[in-house]
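User: Teach me something about this protein's shape.
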Amino acid sequence: MRSLSSTLLAAQKSASRQPYLKVEIVEKVGGVARLAWERLYSGSEDDFHHAATMPSDGSLLRARVNISTYQLYYQRVPNPGPGSAFGSWTGMGAVSSSSGIALASRGATVLLFYVDTDGRTICLRESTDYGATFNAPVPLYTATPSMEWVAADLNESGVVALFFTVGSVVYVMKRSGSTWGSPVSWTNSLSSITGLACCYYGDWNVMVAGQDSSGDYQVATCVYGDGYSQSPGAWSALVKLAYASSGSGVEYRCPFVAMAEVFRTFFVERYTGAAYYSRPLWSYAAATGDYISSLWREPVPFNLASNYGLALAYSSTQAWLSSPYGVWRASFSPSSLDVSADLLALSLWEEPGSGRADLELCNDDGRYNTIGSGSVAAIKEGSEVRMSPGYHTGAGPQGSSGPGYWIEGWEYLSSGGRSSLVIHARDGWGLLENWRARRQYAWPSGSKNIFQLLSFILARAGLEYSTLSSSSALSDEYPPFTIQPGESGATAVKRLLEKVPDVLFFRGHYAYSKNPQPGDASDYGYGINHPVLAGRYASHAPVANRVQVYGSGVLKEVFSWPDLEKAYDRLHQVHDLNLDTEARAQARGEAELRLIQRAATSGEVVVPVNCGQELYDVIELTDPRAGLAAAKCRVLGLALTYGTGERARYQQRLLLGGV
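Assistant: First, the predicted structure itself:
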C-alpha cells in the first residue's frame, strides 16, 4: 500500500469526507519526456561524416566533412533557434577521405578531433572560448594502418579520453593536464567496426556498431571505467542494444550517444536488399538506470533517410539533433495538462496482468476539439495519464499518485446539447502488450537471472523495474529463456513470473514485484473506521491440494493436508528442468500451493476510496453481518469509480483472495 499522510488517512476515514481527484496528462513514457522534434533547418549539404556539441554557453557547434572535396567545415551558432544561420560554414582544411570526426566540450573547452589526409594521423584543434576560436592543429598519434572512427569526451576534472578505431580494434588515449598517454587497446572483440561514440557520465560510456565473428551486425554498449561503474582504465563487456543476423541484409552504423536528461542514442539501420533503406533509429535508457546496465527502450525509426545518422547535443532545457543538412530541437519539458476541473467521470480497473482507465471530460464549450495542439497539446496517443485519488483535508486537498496509464484512443460524445471527450488508457501491461519482439531473443542457462530478464523486457517497453520484496528464486534462478519473434512483452513477462512466487504490479511508471507470504502483516483495515458499503465473501475447495515438482533429477511433493483430508487428492504437477536441487524444487512447490490457496478464497467489497490501496495488499475485514472479525484477505483486483452530478460517486470495489 502506498504511504499516506496522517491528514489524508484521517480524511478518508471521516464520515464527512469530501472527494478530491487530480488527473494530469503529460507527454512522458516511463518517466522520460517524449521529445517533440521541431526541424529548424533544411539544407543541401552532403550526407557524410559530422559531429555536434554544446558548450556551457549554450552555443551550438557543428562540424562536417564535404563528401567530394574532403574539406572539414565548422560552424558556431551562439544562440541557436528559428532563423539562425545554420547554412553558414567556415573551412578548416583538408582531412581524411574516409575517417570520422568528433566534437567534445565541457565548460568553455571545445575539442575537435579529425584524421589527417594521410588517413593515419589523428589531430586535435582546441578552443578555450566556447568554440569561438581554435588553436592550430596538433598531431596526436599516427597509426598503421588507417584510422576510421573517432569519439571523445571530457570528465569533470578535464581529463580527456579519445577513442579511435584501427581495423577492428578500439584504442583509447587519455590526456591529464597537457600530457597525452599512449594508446591502449580495448579488451573486447569485433570482426569489423562501423561506428563509434562515447559520452562521459561517471565513466566514459561507449557505443560501437559493427560485426561479430559470425558476421552478425550489432550496436553494443560498454564502459571504459573512471571509477563509477567500472574501475579506472578497465573495460566492461559488450552488451547488445540492437542485433541483426548476417543473412538478414540489415546493417548498423554511425551511433551517437549523449547523457542529456537520460542517456539517449541515435544510430543508423541500413537494409541492403531490394527495398533498400537507410534511416536513423533512436532509443533512450531507463530514467534512473546506469549505462552499464544497458536497459534501453526498443529502438524506434526516425523519419529521415540518412547513411551517417544524427548527432546529439543538449543544453539544460533542450535537446538538439544535427546532420550536415538539418537541425532539430526539442524541449525536455513535456507538454502537460491538468484536467481535474473538467472530469465528469472516471472508471479505473486493475487486476493481475491487466489495467485500464476511462475518463470523461466536459467538452460543452469545445475546449477539447483540437486535442494534440495548442493548450491541449498533451492529449496524444501514448501520453501518460496520472491519477491521484485523494480527499480534501484540514491541510488542503491531498492525493496519492497511483499507477500510470497511457492513452490508447478517445471518442467524443454529443447528446442533448451536451458534449464530452472520453479518453481510453491502459497501464504498464498495455505498454508491454504493445512491445513485440523484432527477432528471437535467447539466453542460455546461467546467463541471466529472472530479475535481469524482467528488467530487460520492461525496459524495452519503456518501463523501469524494482522490487519491494523478493523470493530467492528471482535472483538465484538463471533459466534458459527464449522470446520468439512477434511475442509480446506481456506474454514474456507472464511466462517468467510463472517460474517464481513473485507478483508484479505498477506504481506510476515503475513496475514493482513482491513476494506474497502467508504471514504478511495487514496493510489496512475495513469495517470499523473505514466502512464497508457492501460485501460478498466466498470460499471454495482449492483446485489442488497436492503439488508435485519434477526438476532435473529431483522430485518434491508439497501437501495441504487439511484440504486433502476434506476433498481427497487433487494433484497439480510442475515440470521445470531448471530446478536442480531439492531446496529449489521445494520452494517452487510451496509457491505453487500458495497461489492455488489464494485463489480458493474469493469475494469482493465496496468501500469508500482508500487512496493508497494497491494490488496484492493484505487487508483486514470486519463485517459482523457476515461473521467476519479482522479476517485477512489479499487484494487481487480493484476498481475505482468517480462521477459528478446525477452520477455522483467515489468508491472502490476490491476483489478478494486468500493471503
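Now, about its shape. The first strand starts at residue 19 and ends at 26. The two ends are 15 Å apart (CA to CA). If you'd like, I can walk through any region in more detail.
User: That's plenty for now, thanks!
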